[in-house]
Amino acid sequence: MRAFFLAAVLTLSSAAPAIGQGTLSCGAAPDSWPLFEQLKTYFKKGEYMTFLESSGPMLEHEVENYEAYFGVMDELFPEGFHRCQTVLVRDEKPAFRQEITMYFRDDMRGPITLLLTGVMIRGSMQLVYFNYNSTVTAVLDELR
Predict the structure, then answer these.
(1) pLDDT of res. 29
(2) 120, 126, 129, 58: which is closest to 93 by C-alpha?
(3) Residue 84 has what pLDDT?
(4) Cα–Cα distance between 30 and 1 in angstroms, integer?
(5) Given Cys at both, which of 58, 83, 84, 93 links 26, Cβ 3.0 to 4.6 Å?
(6) How much is the pLDDT for 118?
(7) What is the pLDDT of residue 63?
(8) At CA 110, angle to CA 84 and CA 43, rounded to 5?
(9) Top-level CATH class of 2-140?
(10) Which regions of the chain are under pLDDT 70?
């Protein structure tokens, strides 16, 4: 699996090379959720354990599955990424949000794409699901 992931990352052709060039930040979304901004920053820096530990109460039990979630990222991208760009923010009333952010490195042809899905429960932002992939369409297929 890891060998396949590495091959996919190294050979992936970027559908939008202009996004992967130049100086970009993840960009705070309008009415951004501080939790999502924090998680996107941890992912960019390669702080994957902190990402998982900070994901909130709905995913706190997943820390024990860290290796399954981020072992390959520790191996391939221990220093994180050079650039990132939030490319989709989708809010559904009354309390649902999805964000897609693309992460780039100078030594990669295409992005790693991160999906964050959250809900607002009693005024508290909660991450309920995340996924990342080197294939953009795999993440897009998960949009609800």
Answers:
(1) 67
(2) 120
(3) 95
(4) 37
(5) 84
(6) 97
(7) 93
(8) 35
(9) alpha beta
(10) 1-25, 28-30
Domain ranges of the chain: 2-140
Q: What is the pLDDT of residue 14?
A: 36
Find out whether 106 and 38 touch, Cβ atoms under 8 Å.
no
Residue holding tokens 């780039």? 104
| Residue showing tokens 């705070």 | 28
Which residue is listed with tokens 């897609």? 100
The span from the CA of 53 to the CA of 71, in Å, is 15
This prediction's pTM: 0.81
Distant-in-sequence contacts of 64-71, Cβ < 8 A, 24+ apart: 71/2
CA distances for 3 relative to 9, 10, 80, 105, 144, angstroms: 10, 11, 19, 19, 29
Per-residue buried b or exposed e for 59-97, using 16+ beta carbons within 10 Å of the residue's own CB: beeeeeeeeebbebbeebbeebbebbbbbebeeeeeeeb
